[in-house]
């Protein structure tokens, strides 16, 4: 395949999953294509230089007399020969620039993903801390309320016991008083 500068400019590499960058095999294959085309251009350049040297030294004038039409071809070949290395260098420079752009784009995407992940993590941590503080405050309020209720119930129990004790002691006193006023006659003797 003849490689053109437009091919280098428009070449799209597939992104690789689970790691950053492009598929190394695909990039290596494309660079191999560039090397093959560059070598062809260099070989063609050498061939054209040899033809030009032969023409200039006079080895080709005999052919030139037999066929006058091909004479302008070496003259046209000279500009092509001089532009071939420049074109090859341009292709390599373009490939390097594209490589650098893709690497920079990958680094920018990586940095953006990391920044987004850090922001999301900070948000999750902040939300969890807020929720934890709210739960602790709620539990503390419930604890205070329950401790107050326990204190109320203890006071109620103490007061109730005191009242019950007073009531029973009062009834015992009444019973003793009744027993002494009725005489010392036992209940069984009364005939009940």
Describe this structure in words.
This protein is mostly helical and 192 residues long. The protein has 4 helices and no strands. Helix 2 (24-57) packs antiparallel against helix 4. It is rod-shaped, with a radius of gyration of 53 Å. The chain starts with a helix and ends in an 11-residue tail after the last helix. Mean pLDDT is 79; it is low at 60-81.
Counted beta strands: 0
- Write down the overall geometry: rod-shaped
Proportion of residues in helical segments: over 70%
- Quickly count the helices: 4
> What sequence of helices (H) and strands (E) makes up the elements?
HHHH
Major sheet characteristics: none
Proportion of residues in extended strands: under 5%
How far is the first residue's CA from the last residue's CA? 134 Å
Low-confidence stretches: 60-81
Radius of gyration: 53 Å
Averaged pLDDT: 79
Overall structural class, as computed from helix and strand content, comes to mainly alpha
In short:
The chain has 192 residues and is mainly alpha-helical.
Which tags fit this structure?
192 residues; mainly alpha; 4 helices; rod-shaped
Which secondary structure elements does this structure contain, and how are they paired or packed?
Blueprint: H1 5-10, H2 24-57, H3 61-66, H4 72-181
């Amino acid at each position: 395949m003849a490689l053109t500068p437009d091919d280098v400019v428009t070449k799209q590499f597939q992104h690789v999953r689970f790691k950053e960058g492009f598929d190394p095999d695909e990039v290596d294959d494309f660079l191999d294509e560039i090397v093959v085309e560059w070598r062809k251009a260099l070989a063609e350049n050498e061939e054209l230089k040899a033809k030009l040297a032969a023409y200039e030294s006079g080895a080709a004038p005999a052919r030139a007399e037999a066929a006058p039409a091909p004479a302008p071809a070496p003259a046209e070949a000279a500009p092509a020969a001089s532009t071939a290395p420049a074109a090859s260098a341009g292709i390599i420079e373009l490939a390097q620039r594209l490589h650098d752009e893709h690497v920079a784009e990958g680094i920018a995407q990586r940095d953006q993903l990391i920044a987004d992940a850090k922001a999301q993590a900070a948000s999750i941590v902040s939300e969890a801390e807020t929720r934890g503080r709210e739960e602790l405050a709620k539990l503390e309020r419930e604890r205070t309320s329950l401790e107050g209720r326990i204190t109320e119930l203890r006071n109620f129990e103490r007061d109730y016991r005191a009242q019950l004790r007073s009531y029973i002691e009062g009834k015992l006193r009444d019973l003793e008083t009744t027993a002494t006023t009725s005489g010392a006659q036992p209940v069984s003797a009364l005939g009940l």
